[in-house]
Amino acid sequence: MPAYKTVVFDLDGTLLNTLEDLWISTNAALAAHGMPKHTIDDVRRFVGNGIALLIHRAVPAGTPADVEAAVLEEFKRHYGAHCEDHTAPYPGIPQMLSRLHEAGVGLAVVSNKADFAVQELVSRQFPGTFDAVLGENEAAGIRKKPAPDMVEAALERMGRDRDGLVYVGDSEVDVQTAASAACPCVTCTWGFRTRGELAEAGATTYVDSPRELELVLLGSAR
Q: Is 66 annotated in the active site?
């Protein structure tokens, strides 16, 4: 039997490499309002807590709230049209997910990315793979990560309990989410944070490749 019955995955930096498209859309939104652009490493550090906070971190300090809101709307427009220009699964991810599915493991995605983008990306990049897919939807009363709400909502949609649950992600937000959901956490080192940043966040179980992750989740790691 697999080591875990249900795996809840983060999306950006864990399953999909979305960084370049996020960077391009961030800079396009800033440029549209005459604001200075950021490096891709800047944006790497800005992401993880949803697009509203991404834009808040990206605009110059002291930007009026109405202007920041306009930049956010421009980001949504641009990203909605370009979210797959350079985005793709990390090598080995589709094969790993297929083998987990074949083993009867329940699979879910929970992401602080806007729900419209999460639904589109997952349906196109991983058709028919996941039993529950949730993007940011605080308007429905589901608090974003690191609150446990999204994990709990995913379990409810899957009709599964917490027995055999594990959370997989690549950032300090994911480490905190697993802690708040009181479940084990497996941390991927190929995403948007350095190993040092992950260690500082309290990560304890690391995997360096999708194949290693698969072995841990299926209980085949040597």
A: no
